[in-house]
Amino acid sequence: LYCEDAPCIAACPTGIDVPAFIRKIGTDNVRGAARTILSANVLGYSCARVCPVEVLCAGACVYNAWHRDPPIAIGRLQRYATETLLRAGRAAALLPRAPANGKRVACVGAGPASLACASYLALEGFAVTIFEKRRLAGGLNTSGVAPYKMPADDALAEVGFVRSLGVEIRTGVEIAPG
Q1: What is the structure's pLDDT at 178?
Q2: In what order do the strands lie in the sheet containing 104-108?
Q3: CB-CB neighbours of 130 under 10 Å
Q4: Pairing with 3, which of 41, 63, 104, 106 sits 20 to 30 Å away (CA)?
Q5: Distance from C-alpha of 36 to C-alpha of 45, rounded to nearest angstrom
């Protein structure tokens, strides 16, 4: 579809260009589709699995207004594109990295917010280290999401993607106050 106002984009908290990535999948450009997704949302893989698309992008799909059921399976298409590149180990090459700027940043906790923040900082040239007190990184994606939605191994694969962007993740580290 070439939606004029693309209500799915407006309904997406990260503003992913849904029509663009769907068009790319339709022309067998899965790499380009994954680039479109990950450029807007570096954690696009886990979001494709746990995001409530039925009330966000798919809920806003023009198919609903046209009384065509079901709406386009945006979450499943997003999952297909991101999973294809993540499993092939080729996702990190999709995102351009700025040269190192000599600045270091530390993030405390390796949940989705820190993983996303660290990823974007690393892409901007910062040396980023995440400190996590638990044995496994990923936060709720690893330990709190129902396994039928996102198995821990898939969450850890996304953590591996974040590492491939140049983020150092140290687990089992206690941060002392003061």
Answers
A1: 67
A2: 104-108, 127-132, 168-171
A3: 26
A4: 41
A5: 12
What count of other Cβ atoms lies within 10 Å of the Cβ of residue 70? 10
Residue 10 CA to residue 17 CA, distance in Å, equals 9
pLDDT for residue 69: 83
Give CA–CA dist 126/15, Å, rounded. Answer: 24
Q: How far is CA 54 from CA 49, 50, 73, in A?
A: 12, 11, 9
The pairs formed by 37-41 with CB atoms below 8 angstroms and a separation of 24 or more are 37/78, 37/81, 37/82, 38/82, 38/91, 38/94, 38/95, 39/94, 39/95, 40/14, 40/15, 40/16, 41/14, 41/16, 41/116
What are the residues facing 132 on neighbouring strands? 171
Report whether 104 contacts 121 (CB < 8 A): no
* DSSP string covering 65-86: HTT-SSPP-HHHHHHHHHHHHH
Q: What pLDDT was estimated at residue 67?
A: 84
With CA atoms as reference, report the closest residue to 11 among 75, 84, 98, 93. Answer: 75
Query: Three-state DSSP class for 155?
Result: helix
* Residues of the chain below pLDDT 50: none
